[in-house]
């Protein structure tokens, strides 16, 4: 019994135990990082510095959910999107390490990457690995150019955490499928060309994960309507997307009929382990350190140090998962751990600094500290919900630990 | 072989070797008598036989031919077994001596000062000063001390004979002994720049590595118990409340593991202050939270001397306060970051 438990623990922690199985992507500059990645890091920093200096965006206000199509176009021109994809699909055949460097620099630099974020992080990878040749050839180059954006069509009004309960239905017709149903919490559906929809294409069986299929849906086509859902800070990211006998051609099916669940869960490892799961409040952390000055008092120094210790550790864990993903592993449990503790950390940042820098947070769109604190506080509840709630993640971790 | 990745085969062999040593030499009776002050001679001899006490040394300085990372992996595995011996101290002593160009004696060696007191002084080959809570000083024939001589740090090897005073125990029952020297002869000494801070920082690193090992065992015990203990007709691990507690525990253990790993990698040529501060702060936090959860999961059983959980949790509660607690390292880290300015934080993290 002990032996089997020990086996489970070492499997779960393999990514973090001394490279016994999967070494993290090496990240110490000058030691193991290939010069190409370090050059890239410098290029991204210079790019962000230029954009900031020209007034194109204000870093402190941004996060990876900030939509800016113009900025995404510039990223595409510089080869910062679709970096790991083949050149024939508009990609740049870079390594996962190089892509990681670019994404973390964008987030730390407060770049408004929200428009292309989903397509670059997960949709494009799905299309590359599971899409038809037509989908790859027509869509990927436009994503890589920073011109075409994606939304995620997983959640529904009655299916949030319980994703297998989706009721949007696909019915086979000549040459394709007719889709009907409603998707919800669909960020950027009102300004994206596509979404990937998880659809039930066969009646529920005992295995409720069977009979689900993913489709690439073109949002400009007839049969689909998009309605805004405003979030608590008054922003319009979310939408409700309704399909009414929407026709999707056979070659926009992803990875085969009935393969939806497997693909969705595979995608989640990419969605959950990246630097976006612990850098959402980096701008506030940085502003707070600036505000507290070069000689903070004991308590402030203590709290800053605690956050830095968490941040440095999370980065290590995240790069470790990236290393596993690069090797083709499916580190779903490790990814769930990164997201669980990463988002827990993110949510603590505004809660702690409001004590250290007495402020009445303000609901406005400026760049003053009370405005940044206010914005972060109102975004924070989403951190532990989007991409899998904390409770779902802990269930996944518990299953990985052999408790379910 | 990349020094970062280590050699997975080597790691597995090391772990198996260490596991065998503990199975043969560290029965519960040995643990209990060690807590009562009896030197676990059989265990120490077995560890010497497999070359662990000198494992952190380069081969040229009499080491076992292991990389520093592998040596730290070994230390971590012995902490997984809650080893009641001064292996970390001996490894640290050996590295300080080697850095100063001095030869390592045989047997277990401790390091001082650890807590409080004034700085040791060295003059005319004689050392003076006193300090508290030196680990295992009552059972080590030698100590490596860092003293000040003409304003410079000096590493000196001394005999503990006649210098060891009262012995207290930490929460795990490990001896912590006061030491006092008055013009005591040194066996050997040499200058080493920043030796005092190196001792403090590298000591924190080793305690962090040990905590990572003890945490791994803590998680294993908790999982095993949750799967075996039946209440209300099912294993308690089937209850969602328990599952979520264990998921949180796993997060802390994984974070501790990652932090230890990163600090070790950065410290091959001497402790990296920033990464060690990160590790000791983060692992110390994980230690407290994890021990709390593990005990809660174990209920009354974990509160007994019968179950073995306490051998690792009492070490976690002790080690997190040794060589600087979380507040010490967090504050140091916070001051470093603030002094460099907010814009320097990201470049520091990605260095």
Describe this structure in words.
The complex is a heterodimer of chains A (404) and B (351). With 404 residues, chain A is α+β, with helices and mostly antiparallel strands. Helix content of chain A is 46%, strand content 12%. Chain A is built from twelve helices and eight strands. In chain A, the strands form two sheets. Chain A has a four-stranded mixed beta sheet. Chain A has a four-stranded antiparallel beta sheet with strand order 2-3-7-6, with no helix packed on it. The longest helix of chain A has 29 residues, at 298-326. Residues 1-5 and 14-32 of chain A have low confidence and may be disordered. Chain B is of the alpha+beta class and 351 residues long. Chain B folds into two domains: 8-191, Butyryl-CoA Dehydrogenase, subunit A, domain 2 (Beta Barrel), CATH 2.40.110; 195-349, Up-down Bundle (Butyryl-CoA Dehydrogenase, subunit A, domain 3). Chain B has eleven helices and ten strands. In chain B, strand 9 and strand 10 (234-235) form a beta hairpin. Chain B is globular, with a radius of gyration of 20 Å. Classes of the chains: A alpha+beta (404), B alpha+beta (351). The interface between A and B is large, with 71 and 68 residues.
- Measured as a percent range, the helix fraction of chain A is 40-55%
CATH second-level architecture of the largest domain in chain B: Beta Barrel
Q: Please give the domain count of chain B.
A: 2
- Structural class of chain A, by secondary structure, is alpha+beta
SSE string of chain A = HHHHHHEEEEEEEEHHHHHH
Total domain modules of chain A: 3
CATH topology of the largest domain in chain B: the name is Butyryl-CoA Dehydrogenase, subunit A, domain 2
Query: Using DSSP, what is the number of strands of chain B?
Result: 10
CATH architecture of the largest domain in chain A: Orthogonal Bundle
Please report the two chains with the greatest interface, counting residues with C-beta closer than 8 angstroms to the partner's C-beta.
A-B, 71 and 68 residues
Low-confidence stretches of chain A: 1-5, 14-32
Give the mean pLDDT of chain A. Answer: 90
Cα shape of chain A: globular
Measured as a percent range, the helix fraction of chain B is 40-55%
How would you describe the shape of chain B? globular
> Would you identify the CATH H-level superfamily of the largest domain in chain B?
Butyryl-CoA Dehydrogenase, subunit A, domain 2
Q: What fraction strand of chain B?
A: 15-25%
